[in-house]
Specification:
The structure is a homodimer. The first copy, chain A, contains 4 helices and 11 strands. With about 210 residues, chain A is α+β, with helices and mostly antiparallel strands. Chain A has one domain: Electron Transport, Fmn-binding Protein, Chain A (Pnp Oxidase, Chain A). In chain A, strands 1, 2, 3, 4, 5, 6, 7, 8, 9 and 10 form a 10-stranded antiparallel sheet that branches. The radius of gyration of chain A is 21 Å and the shape is globular. Chain A starts with 14 loop residues before the first strand and ends in a 16-residue tail after the last strand. Chains A, B: This is Pyridoxamine 5'-phosphate oxidase family protein. Chains A, B: Pfam families: Pyridox_ox_2 (PF12900).
């Protein structure tokens, strides 16, 4: 949703407010950075998350300083960044990056129901490693009790996207300086078993061949 | 430097305060996320940066809302995250990620001297694309005037690092569930010239072969 907070002061043409665009960026990102402030002092922390419909879900230890502050329902800002490429222009000034980013302004709602907490942990785990959860040793009540799950509405979220070639000044366009894009990609390398798993078959969802 | 703010409430054994460790993470990261608060409302923004000795340098448009807030010298929190791997345990509870992260608490100092501003832009450009600057059309006074450069001391910075295999509960160790690590890597793909550069040779610093 476009609000004063989600309207950028610069490059407004890069701003997007459609849910589909925002969801696709959130669904691809492996972590988010959550910021909050206490007495004017900002704090921020990278953390795993998942999206369920119009909510973003995180989890953490019930004892964590971060969780205990944020669960109070103070305002947070959640930032997600996918860096897609380096944009090389003919001047330093026109250098840029291609990216897809999302910012969310929200307050935490604590997820209390046991099944909903488990569901959030399933979503967070399967977001990072699709199909993982069914293989795991079943969760225990103690583990769920020790875990806080927080949900954040995506109502006040916006995306910013830059794609494509550099935009050099017209007077620079014919300079014999190489310009273009270096695409960046996050890749998953071959899975490395720990000592307990060298004789176990690699699960189908971890195969890269 | 270890201060109350840089001492984690959880997993204290993952915390590091040596300059070398902090610098190496900052030097590898392609962007940082800067957070600040106005009237208790946190804001955060991903941005390019460079490190020079014990300072972190960023740049932005003189007109940007973000720059104009931060240049006032309000407290900021700078977060850098390198996600090195997904850590798959035999229980959901013991799943984790391998990462190297840095958090910096600081306030901005505006870099005013012309040559120091140019130097910061050289460092930021060459951090993302080593050796790039000497190839570029020379900066103009107008470009430098339109750009704000801010410096942040790294005095109050700390790193958190997790490496290695999953740590399952002893009673789970013999379960026939595959456990181990999926390494993650950010790769630069082959450079793509824009229309002006298809006939120009690829600079040596962009070659990947």
């Amino acid at each position: 949703m476009q609000t004063q907070r989600t309207t950028p002061s610069r490059s407004a043409k890069r701003a997007h407010y459609e849910a589909e665009t925002i969801y696709s960026i959130l669904d691809e990102a492996l972590y988010c950075t959550i910021s909050y402030a206490v007495d004017g002092q900002p704090w921020s922390l990278p953390t795993a998350f998942a999206r369920e419909d119009d909510r973003l879900l995180i989890h953490g230890s019930v004892g964590s300083h971060f969780i205990r502050e944020v669960e109070k329902g103070i305002p947070v800002c959640i930032s997600v960044t996918l860096l897609d490429g380096l944009v090389l222009a003919k001047s330093g000034f026109s250098h840029s990056v291609n990216y897809r980013s999302v910012v969310v302004f929200a307050t935490a709602e604590k997820v209390e129901a046991y099944d909903e907490k488990v569901n959030a942990l399933v979503l967070i785990t399967n977001k990072l490693i699709p199909n993982r959860w069914p293989d795991l040793r079943k969760e225990t009540e103690s583990e769920i009790r020790k875990t806080t799950v927080l949900a954040f509405s995506l109502e006040e979220a916006s995306a910013k996207i830059r794609t494509g070639d550099p935009k050099d000044e017209p007077e620079d366009a014919n300079l014999p300086i190489w310009s273009g894009v270096i695409p960046l990609e996050t890749v998953r390398l071959a899975a490395i078993p720990d000592a307990s798993s060298t004789a176990l078959p690699l699960p189908h969802y971890l195969r890269t061949d």
